[in-house]
Automatic annotation (TrEMBL):
The active site is at E189. Catalyzes the reversible reaction in which hydroxymethyl group from 5,10-methylenetetrahydrofolate is transferred onto alpha-ketoisovalerate to form ketopantoate. Mg(2+) binds at D54, D93, E124. It catalyses: (6R)-5,10-methylene-5,6,7,8-tetrahydrofolate + 3-methyl-2-oxobutanoate + H2O = 2-dehydropantoate + (6S)-5,6,7,8-tetrahydrofolate. The keyword Manganese does not apply. It is an enzyme of class 2 (transferase). This is 3-methyl-2-oxobutanoate hydroxymethyltransferase.
Length: 271
């Protein structure tokens, strides 16, 4: 036998690894990152999924919402993140206006996968035509339901969605339909915990919650929120993991462990 062993090449997690985690009952930890330093740190800690979110418009660019974010921003930040991570699965948001038609969505998704190095794209709303077309062309898609921040100019305010039975029923229906359209993951934002639990149990694809209770298959938060870097009004699901940590890496590790052990979110973080 050779004394030389093969180099320890770590392949990033794949969409099938994430599906297996759901089946096996292992919670999926996810945080946003927009640059190489945080990407490497999250990867080191073992965060399963890095989301290059259009929340970068707010926490990086200082915009009032995610609406001003453009494709060039998403490509640039995706590249910064994917260049250095070894294990984490990388999902990138398609920004406002970039998936108005299926053809447009494909051109933009291809930029995120090719130039950005992302493994999956995320889009807001039950855009079944767009999801089917992307999946048909080989693009893994994460749907995003509940609170849709790209629609803030119609919503007027960031609010919990699906408290009324009729709206809850519609979100459940949309969740079913995006799965049938071929989405391989779903983010549920700001919905009652009971609704998110029902959806997570019903779907076979991983459901990642933010302000959606502990019974989702995984959790996602904006990195800067767990690091207590966000000033202003704090949403319910907000938790400052720096409070119990000695530094940034430990805060991320505490978040990771809290998600894996179902300690986060606690009832006070839920709707
Ligand atoms: N830093 C940051 N963190 C986020 O979680 C985040 C962003 N930015 N930007 C894009 C969206 C906007 N998000 C938000 C923003 C505010 C609330 C919020 O204030 N929610 C109220 C709801 C009150 C109610 O409906 O009763 C809350 O008190 O939780 C929720 C989600 C989530 N996303
Ligand atoms: C908050 C998450 C789900 C997101 O879409 C973002 O960071 O843009
Ligand atoms: Mg987003």
């Amino acid at each position: 036998m050779s004394v030389y062993s093969a180099p320890a090449v770590v392949k990033p997690l794949s969409v099938t690894d994430l599906a297996a985690m759901k089946r096996g009952g292992e919670k999926i930890s996810c945080l946003t990152a927009y640059d190489a330093s945080f990407s490497a740190l999250l990867d080191r800690v073992g965060i399963d999924v890095i989301l290059v979110g259009d929340s970068l418009g707010m926490v990086i660019q200082g915009q009032q919402s995610t609406v001003p974010v453009i494709m060039d921003d998403m490509v640039y930040h995706s590249r910064c993140v994917t260049r250095v991570r070894t294990r984490a699965f990388v999902v990138t948001d398609l920004p406002f206006g970039s998936y108005a038609t299926p053809e447009m969505a494909l051109l933009n998704a291809a930029r995120l996968l090719q130039a950005g190095g992302a493994q999956m794209v995320k889009l807001e709303g039950a855009r079944l035509d767009v999801i089917r077309f992307l999946v048909d062309q080989g693009v893994p898609v994460c749907a995003h339901l509940g609170l849709l921040p790209q629609s803030i100019n119609q919503l007027g305010a960031y609010r919990v969605q699906g408290k009324e039975p009729l709206v809850a029923e519609q979100i459940l229906e949309h969740a079913d339909k995006v799965e049938q359209a071929g989405a391989s993951m779903l983010v549920l934002e700001c919905v009652p915990a009971s609704l998110a639990a029902n959806i997570s149990a019903k779907l076979s694809i991983p459901v990642i919650g933010i302000g959606a209770g502990v019974d989702c298959d995984g959790q996602v938060l904006v990195l800067y929120d767990i690091l207590n870097l966000e000033a202003g009004k704090k949403p319910r699901f907000y938790k400052n993991f720096m409070a119990e940590a000695n530094g940034v890496e430990e805060a991320v590790r505490l978040y990771h462990q809290a998600v894996k052990s179902c300690q986060y979110p606690a009832p006070e973080h839920c709707y």
